[in-house]
Amino acid sequence: MLHILWILIKFILVLLAILLGLVVLALLLILFCPVRYQASAAKEEGSFFDASASARISWLFGGISFRLDYKDRTAGYELRILGIPLLRLLNYFRNRKKKKQQTSDTSKPQIQTLTQKDVINAETHKSLSDSQSLAGTSRTEDSVSREESHTYSSTDETLDETISEDQQRLIRKIENLCYSLGYKLRAFFESLRRFWQKLCGIPKNIENFTLTIKNICDKINMFRDFLEHPRVKAAITLVKDHFIKLLRHVFPTKTKGNLTFGSTDPSITGSVLAVLGMTIPLHKNCIAVTPVFEDKNILKGNISLKGRIYGVFLIKTALELYFNKNIKYVIRRWKHKHKED
User: Fold this and answer.
1) Percent of the chain whose predicted confidence (pLDDT) is above 70
2) pLDDT tens-digit profile of 190-209?
3) How far apart are CA 132 and CA 138, in angstroms?
4) CA 67 to CA 55: how far, in whole Å?
5) How far apart are CA 320 and CA 65, in angstroms?
6) Under a CB-based contact definition with an 8 Å cutoff, are residues 301 and 260 in contact?
7) Which is nearest to 298 in space by CA: 306, 289, 307?
8) Which residues pair with 53 in a beta bridge?
9) Is the model's pTM score more than 0.70?
10) Residue 249, Cα to own-chain centre: how many angstroms?
């Protein structure tokens, strides 16, 4: 009995050790196995649409990779896991499933289609009979309504004959005059009421304007005092230094290429060359630039770059920023300011 228990305990311990080893291995891969990227682009003389470009991101020594290509005005992408094109397999299985469904639909018997046609014919026959009955009832209702309208029109004609046309015109003029006078008086009093309300609201608007200006000035002074605090300055310099280090780590480690450009205006070519000269610290003069001071527009060249990103560097930067006392002070004071507001 004890021997069996000891075997079970050993088995459980071995499983736990395997799981722990896998977790440690995964952490080590995340920390020390870099994410590598590379990109390239090329353009010959012609339109920008004729250019070609490609980008690739890989991890786990190329075991997981994603590729994006653009060539001949078409874009494509591909995901590979251990060299297996995952997206192609998914599309293959989807197409296979669709083909099976189509074959199953075509292999159904045609008896069901015949029965459906019979049902449709019966329904159309029933709808025709219903429409005929509804048409008969609507005709009878139209005849009744015509007779009633005829009787009403005859009574109206007799009333119009009793009242002369001059009296009707006079009554209409008086009604229109009263209506227009009432509308104008109501609009006049409404405009007076609005003007009085604006006059009464001028002191309040001036007071609100002064309060808003005072609040804006108070907030500006608060932010100025907040930014001039020595601990806040120390936190800002720390974040700036880590950000510069992060950019240096993320930037490509290998860059090469050549660029040939020119314009019909030599001044534009010179200004572009000056701007490109400011980018030399970034690519360390690995891109050869050839200006063409001729009377033509030209832009061609190619470029390729490679780089890597280590997870341990990102985690180290995040931990240093998180456990810094100055940054904690800034966060705590910022929250306290928002609560006061």
Assistant:
1) 81
2) 888 888 888 787 878 887 88
3) 10
4) 6
5) 31
6) yes
7) 289
8) 41, 70
9) no
10) 29
Edge-to-edge strands of the sheet including 298-309?
A: 84-85, 74-81, 64-71, 52-59, 35-43, 298-309, 254-262, 287-292
Dist CA 52 CA 74 (whole Å): 9
Closest CA to 256 of 280, 288, 234: 288
The helix or strand, by DSSP H or E, that contains position 47, with its residue range, turns out to be none
pLDDT computed for residue 71 by the predictor: 86
Q: Are strands 74-81 and 84-85 parallel, antiparallel or unpaired?
A: antiparallel
Give the CA-trace dihedral at 261, 266, 271, 276, to 10 degrees: 20
Contact 293, 266 (CB under 8 A): yes
Strands 254-262 and 287-292, by their bridges, are parallel
Q: Alpha-carbon distance 66 to 39, whole Å?
A: 12
Beta strands (DSSP E) in 114-214 are none
Instruction: Tell me the average pLDDT across 158-167.
Output: 59
Beta strands of 88-246 (E only): which ranges?
A: none
**Phi, psi (deg, nearest 5) at residue 217:** -65, -40
Q: Exposure string (b/e) for 182-205, b if CB count within 10 Å is 16 or more?
A: eeeeeeeeeeeeeeeeeeeeeeee
pLDDT of residue 159: 46
